[in-house]
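Limitations
The C-alpha cells in this dataset are predictions for the assembled complex, not deposited experimental models. Users should treat interface geometry with appropriate caution, especially where small molecules or nucleic acid strands are included. An illustrative entry is reproduced here so readers can see what is and is not provided.
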Amino acid sequence: MTRLIFLGPPGAGKGTQAKALADHWQIPHISTGDILRQALKEQTPLGIKAQSYMDKGELVPDHLVQAMVEERLKQPDTEPGWILDGFPRTVQQASFLEGLLQKLEQRGERVVNLDVPDDIVVGRLLERGRKDDNEDVIRRRLEVYRSETAPLIDYYSSKQQLLIVNGNQSLEEVTIELTKAIA
Ligand code: ADP
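Predicted assembly:
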C-alpha cells in the first residue's frame, strides 16, 4: 500500500516524478493543478471560480480544493494507494487531509519533500512555458510557496512523516533516490 504526498516548490519536478512512480505502482496520480486546469478548460463552476486565482499565481481557496480532493479520494480506484501532487499546500489543507484520511480509513501516508534551490526552480519554470508561467506569476507562486506551503516541511517533519530527496539532479537520479527513500 503506497500513499504518498509530494511537497516541493513549483518547478521541483513533483509532477514528473509523481507520474512516473504512479505508473510504476499502478496507483492514481492525483494532481490538484491538473484537475483545476481541466476544470478551467471545461469551464465547470469550479474552473470558473478557480481561474482568477490561478492566473495570478495565488492559491485557490482551501474549501474549493478540499472538496475536490475529498471527492477524488472517495473514488474506488484509490483503494491500492495514491500519490498526491500539489496538495496539501497550506497547514489548513494538511489538517483537513489528516481528518479526511482518518474518516476514509486511508492513513499511513508518507510525505516526500523534493528539495530544489530557488534560482534553479525559476529557470525551469521559465523554460516550461505553461500559460501561468510568466515571470511575475512565477515570482508570486514562489512567494506563496514560501509563506503558505514551506511551513508544511516543519509540520510533517515534527510528525516524523517526512522524507527529503534532492530534486536538483537529473530526472533519472531523482527517481532512483526517491525509490530508495520510499522502499
Ligand atoms: P506548480 O507545481 O507549478 O505550482 P500546480 O500545477 O501544482 O503548479 O498548480 C497550479 C495552480 O493551481 C497553483 O498556482 C494554484 O493556483 C492552483 N492550485 C493547485 N493546487 C492547489 C492547492 N492545493 N491549493 C490551492 N491552490 C492550488
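Some entries come with short summary sentences. For this one: The chain has one domain: 2-31+80-182.
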